[in-house]
Design goal:
Elements (H helix, E strand, L loop, with lengths): L1 H20 L3 H11 L1 H21 L5 E11 L4 E15 L3 H67 L5 H36 L20 H11 L1 H22 L4 E10 L16 E10 L7 H67 L5 H36 L4 H4 L12
Antiparallel strand pairs: 1-2, 2-3, 3-4
Helix pairs in contact: 2-4, 3-4, 4-5, 4-7, 4-9, 6-8, 7-8, 8-9
């Protein structure tokens, strides 16, 4: 009994170990989410854009400066020093700062949505890379099995020829098909290497043993109309354009504010000549002085520049709305196309499974009939070729089915890391 148990453990352990180290699609997507440099660069751009809000807001905050200097007074033939601390405060700027803050907030939201769109594009590319490695390895295995079958068939024909049951023609036919199978296997191995190189580029790791992917059926919308509705309300590329249009609207208000008065105040404490940006706060003697003042500027004529900037910003607003409409149409078209491709892949996979089953039965029958002289070797070779073609079509169709499901999620804006429930820490500086 102990020997039996030891033998069972020895048989099961390698299988369990291989399964434990096999990488599912979700793990590969988590690596792409963490390591992909394009995605990390986009996140860095989002963090940088957040500071534009602070820069815009600073225009209405007080400015405090210490000023110190020395000069020569020719009338008194003496040197005079000036020093002091001054505070300048913009009290009203035609609401330009308020609207400019809103412009940058809208641009920040657009940047975040663009990053979400980049994230989804990267994860979809990672899905294709993963499934391409699975597909090419599967096809290489099928080509190897085909070559092994043809090698065995060739040996059988040679043996029968030696026994006087076959002609040299049969051997030549078998050897020709075997050579063709060898060439196909070499091409399959080259495709595996190409797919693995793409995998490394996108996911940032070597492709080990892969388990293969499954269609995310539970995440897919029930019908096309539902898919189009989700895409219209949630796709990040479309949301980014809408945020940019919102920012363009506030930018019109920023330029209109240039036609309104501005009010600035300043206070200062100092000694000697010097002062703030406002002339009324200048110090006029050697004694310490405290001065304060308010300045009002009303634009009367600016050479048409401000009015032209208003008109230009309004045209940019119209362009932003048209761009959003164009993005909406593009998102809808991609969602419809993804849905059609997925349905076609499902139908192709179903037909290919039936084709593989029928071709295998036909090949087995051909071999039995060829053994009793009712079929030629060429019939068997053709039947074997049909089986391999059907198997390769099925492998491609099953790959297209999985990729098609994820393509729909990408097309409707539901292929983010949170949507997929990926457990991964980012490598960028402020990742969560």
């Amino acid at each position: 009994m102990k020997r039996i148990l030891v033998a069972l453990v020895a048989m099961i352990a390698p299988i369990a170990l291989g399964q434990a180290h096999a990488e599912p699609l979700s793990s590969a997507l988590a690596k792409a989410y963490r390591y992909n440099p394009t995605l990390n660069a986009s996140r860095a751009a989002v963090r940088a854009s957040a500071y534009d809000i602070d820069i815009a807001r600073s225009a209405m905050l007080p400015k405090i400066a210490w000023r110190n200097g020395i000069g020569y007074d020719s009338s008194a033939a003496t040197n005079r020093g000036t020093f002091g601390i001054f505070l300048d405060q913009t009290l009203f700027d035609g609401l330009r700062t308020t609207n400019n803050v809103e412009v940058n907030k809208a641009r920040q939201r657009a940047s975040e949505e663009n990053t979400r769109n980049t994230e989804q594009n990267i994860l979809f590319a990672a899905t294709e890379a993963y499934m391409d490695v699975v597909l090419t390895r599967r096809i290489a295995t099928l080509r190897k099995q085909d070559l092994d079958f043809l090698k065995a068939l060739t040996r059988s024909e040679i043996a029968r020829h030696a026994a006087g049951e076959r002609t040299r023609t049969n051997i030549a036919q078998a050897e020709a098909r075997r050579a063709a199978a060898q060439a196909e296997l070499s091409l399959a191995h080259a495709e595996v290497k190409r797919a693995q190189a793409t995998y490394r580029q996108i996911i940032g790791d070597e492709p080990g043993k892969l388990t293969g992917g499954k269609v995310p059926s539970k995440m897919l919308p029930a019908h096309l109309d539902r898919a189009l509705a989700i895409a219209a309300s949630q796709h990040p590329a479309l949301l980014a354009k809408r945020h940019l249009a919102e920012g363009a609207m506030f930018n019109v208000a920023v330029n209109e504010g240039k036609l309104l008065p501005t009010v600035t105040g300043a206070i200062g404490v100092g000694r000697g000549e010097g002062g703030s940006a406002i002339e009324v706060t200048r110090f006029d003697g050697s004694a310490t002085a405290r001065k304060a003042g308010i300045e009002v500027k009303v634009p009367v004529y600016q050479g048409g520049k401000a009015a032209a900037e208003v008109r230009k910003s309004k045209e940019n607003l119209g362009n932003a709305h048209f761009t959003a409409d164009l993005q909406h149409a593009e998102v809808q078209a991609k969602a419809a196309s993804a849905w059609a491709q997925y349905q076609a892949a499902l139908a192709t996979a179903s037909a290919s499974r039936a084709a593989v089953k029928a071709a295998t039965i036909a090949k087995d029958g051909m071999m039995e009939e060829q053994a009793i002289g009712q079929r030629t070797l060429l019939d068997v070779l053709e039947a074997q070729a049909d089986v391999v073609k059907a198997q390769v079509r099925l492998a491609n169709a099953e790959r297209d089915t999985v990729v098609g499901g994820y393509r729909i999620l990408s097309a409707i804006g539901k292929l983010g890391a949170k949507d997929l429930g990926l457990m991964a820490r980012r490598t960028d500086a402020e990742g969560r």
